[in-house]
Amino acid sequence: MKEKILRDFFEGTCTAQDLARDMHRSMATAENTTHHHIEPMENEFAVNCGHLVAICDAVLKGHIEPGDLELIGNCIVGSDAFTYDVDTVDGARVADTTIDWATPLANYPLTMANVSRWRRRLLGEVVEPRPNGV
Predict the structure, then answer these.
(1) Distance, CA of 121 to CA of 83 (rounded, Å)
(2) Which pLDDT tens digit goes with each residue over 64-107?
(3) What's the count of helices (H) and strands (E) in the chain, helices before strands?
(4) Distance, C-alpha 11 to centroid of its chain
């Protein structure tokens, strides 16, 4: 997955379908294990709640699979280029959400119902994903 493509999606210069294609091209399967190569970008990009709401919208519209949120979360959390300030309300929501996405086995399942809850939380509602994903 190219960080640049994710940034382009956030900026509105590529579609959710372009992002999905890029994520699926980055997959490599060996011995029943799937790995994703993440290609870093050079410049920093500040991620905000609106960017993640756009990802949620793409999932809810069926352009991106809920399971793809794990890769997106790992890409943002592990990136040197994607930034967010956890000392702000917006940045804390970005951090909480991307960590939830990156670690679904430890946090919440990547279901459509939880995507809807993450979207609402990103918009400021007091709502949490559910462990059973329903």
Answers:
(1) 19
(2) 999 999 999 999 999 999 999 999 999 999 999 999 999 999 88
(3) 6, 4
(4) 15
